[in-house]
Design a protein that fits this description.
The protein has five helices and six strands; from the N terminus they run αβαβααββββα. The N and C termini lie far apart (about 120 Å). It is α+β, with helices and mostly antiparallel strands. The longest helix is centred in the N-terminal third of the chain and has 52 residues. The chain binds calcium ion (2 copies). The site of one calcium ion has 5 residues, from strand 5.
Length: about 260
């Protein structure tokens, strides 16, 4: 009687060797890495574009509000649920460190508390910020204030600088850009997002001048709109005096 003996394994039937497996894993890792990087970069581009669109729409909404109400709205506070503070305008309670008053203007997308949020998410840090000039005794946020003061006497004074380096901040109402770094010295309002790094941003030389939770907040009339980079990713738009006057004249609110 003979015992059944299994045939010796051939080279065709044996499995992968450890070295072969390692090579396969290495190639898969390379492929995955190559695919994932562009994906996150694509998401960043989409969020940046979405934020630009939201900021531009917010600026349009401001112009519409000014034409209908003869004044601009005050910024919302962190507790006013997206409603301007104070309601009804006049001297604003948070002219330089408030939020876009989306509830007052009926704008979307808002978070559950009524604040407009940028394209980077729906966390508290992703809320869209809004600042307004207090020039001419708050004429811009007081009903009929602009008409009463008159176009030639109105001097909105928000400053947009290319850098925070050398910025002079004697008082909140007199802060100004360093020499040759001004993008605008007579902006009426600034609308901005803290960008992708919102949760951890604000300590750099430039971002620290745009109030946000992490900065040693410098709430004054000067803001920084620097080149996008590793230390600056805030996105800003501002409302110029010329555009505002143009729309108000067309609507019969001025002169
Ligand atoms: Ca930022
Ligand atoms: Ca500032």
């Amino acid at each position: 009687m003979k015992l059944a003996v299994s045939p010796a394994p051939t080279s065709v039937e044996r499995g992968f060797t450890l070295i072969e497996l390692a090579i396969v894993m290495f190639i898969v890792t390379l492929l995955l890495g190559g695919m994932l990087l562009p994906l996150s970069a694509q998401q960043d581009v989409r969020a940046y574009g979405e934020t630009q669109k939201i900021l531009a729409e917010a600026r349009d909404a401001l112009l519409g509000y000014a034409m209908a109400n003869d004044r601009l709205p005050c910024p919302a506070s962190s507790t006013s649920n997206g409603v301007e503070d104070p309601p009804g305008g006049g001297p604003c309670n948070h002219p330089y460190d408030g939020f876009f008053p989306a509830a007052t203007l009926g704008l979307a997308p808002v978070d559950t508390q009524g604040y407009l949020v940028d394209g980077w998410g729906a966390e508290t840090v992703n809320r869209v910020r809004y600042s307004i000039t207090v020039a001419n005794t708050s004429a811009f946020t007081t009903a009929s204030g602009m008409k009463t003061t008159g176009m030639t006497a109105l001097t909105p004074d928000l400053q947009i600088c290319t850098t925070g380096t050398g910025m002079a901040t004697p008082t909140p109402d007199t802060a100004s850009c360093a020499a040759n770094t001004s993008l605008a010295t007579d902006a009426v309002a600034v609308i901005y997002s803290l960008g992708k790094n919102a949760a951890s941003s604000g300590s750099g030389t430039d971002e620290t001048h745009n109030p946000n939770p992490q900065a040693t907040t410098i709430a004054d009339r000067a803001f920084v709109g620097a080149q996008q980079g590793s230390s600056f990713d805030d996105q800003l738009v501002w409302l110029s005096k010329s555009i505002l006057f143009n729309r108000l004249v067309a609507a019969g609110r001025l002169p």
